[in-house]
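During the reporting period the student researcher (J.K.) took over the structure-prediction task from the postdoctoral fellow and processed the backlog of single-chain submissions. One of the processed entries is reproduced below for the supervisory committee.
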Amino acid sequence: MFYVYAISSNNRNYIYVDLSNNVDRRIIEYNTGRNKTTKPYAPFTLFHQKAFPTRPLARAREKYLKSGVSKEFLKNKLNSLRE
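J.K. obtained the following structure tokens:
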């Protein structure tokens, strides 16, 4: 099973989308600074996650969520969770 997820920086206005077969491990890696891309934005909170049976399906969804239109969807979802 593969998961596409979105995390939000607790300190800055930053959303990161990725895919993994172990989301918990990846969140720990992000929050401990082991990922070079996200290190300056740590710590993070997971706010969106969806499971897919295959990696190609998960990759297609990840690419979609990284598009401009979907970034607005994620921002709106995050804002509604914070209210």
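The committee noted the following: The mean pLDDT is 94.
J.K. will present the remaining backlog at the next meeting.
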